[in-house]
Amino acid sequence: MKIRVEDIPKEGKELVFGWDDISLKTFITPHDPYNIRIDEPLFVRMFLVKEKNYIRVRGKIEGGFFARCHKCLEEFTYPVNIKIETFLYSQTDFRVDTEDEIELDKEDLNQEFFDGVEIDIDLVVAEEIFLSLPQVLVCSDNCKGLCPVCGSNRNFSDCGCVNVVRSPFAELLSLKKTLSS
Question: What per-residue confidence (pLDDT) applies to 29?
């Protein structure tokens, strides 16, 4: 969904819509490590207001999606409750010298740029969702994961495998002995 800046009235524009799996899939790479899937559309409410130098976007995204646990590989529902507070600046208003390094302040993290004519609402929603994801998705805080020996899910049963952890230095010593023979 795209909104033209000229279509945003002075008092602002409210958008309420469902964001579904089809919208999500346009932003996901073929080998997505999160394996995200949306069965019921996420509820999105946004309010866009034109300010002097930017467009202010406030709102929320609520619902849930399915993902694979990175420890046990089981599918689970990941709850989504994201507060949106973004400032969209026109790219034509900013000229940045790319030769110099720029240190970002905390306030810079909720600033985005757009072409100055149209706002891609789906892109704003996708960015908010992806930025809210943890690096490792787990089904629960006490997930035991998979057994490194036999591969069984330790959340369902204890396989009884003995997990021998060898030091990487022991591996090097073994390699050294093999090479010196």
Answer: 82
How confident is residue 16, by pLDDT bands cut at 50, 70 and 90? very high
151 and 139, same domain (yes or no) = no
Pair 138, 68: CB distance under 8 Å:
no
**Which residues is 123 bridged to in the sheet?**
none
- Do residue 105 and residue 133 come from a single domain? yes
Kindly report the CA angle at 73 between 69 and 75, in degrees rounded to 5? 65
Domain boundaries, position 156: 146-181
| Nearby residues of 23 by Cβ (< 8 Å), 6 or more positions away | 122, 125, 126
Cα-Cα-Cα-Cα dihedral sign, residues 49, 55, 59, 64 = positive
Domain tally, the chain: 2
∠ CA 12-14-16, nearest 5°, is: 170
Same domain flag for 79 and 115: yes
